[in-house]
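pasting for ref
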Amino acid sequence: MQLKHEENQFEPTTFPITLVCDHIYFQQNIGSLFRISEAFGIEKIIFTGKDIPLNPRKINKTSRSTHLHVKHSVIEENKELISYLQQNNYEIIALEIASTSKPLKEVELPLDKKIALVIGNEINGISDEVLTISNQIVHINMFGKNSSMNVVQAASIALYEFTSKLI
């Protein structure tokens, strides 16, 4: 028998993971990123860029009100983001197909640092500035003809992998 929401058997847990959204602007993706972040118990979301559309009325449909529970902030400039991540000693892990990326299964999560999972813009991916300072670049192996997937699905797969390794 299917359980009701209040009957679930999962123990609430917060993981030392910050989801960094590098210039993500599609409101459906933003709402869904809140929802998946809440489901995986991440600490917070950082959105980078100007004029990020955090209009609660428009993202509420896909976030299912999780935007009210997940800590989040906006950092407009990449320089500020890079400074923040480096000063706070994050392990910066970029989710991107790149010449130096390795399969997601090979990600190494340090137990003594917070983790910043960086996901990129819906069209252009992660900016070169942020890729350059990443400690690790990982990709999801794909076996179809397409070389990319929606940012929310990719983030979900990565967060599942990360939290599975941290439990």
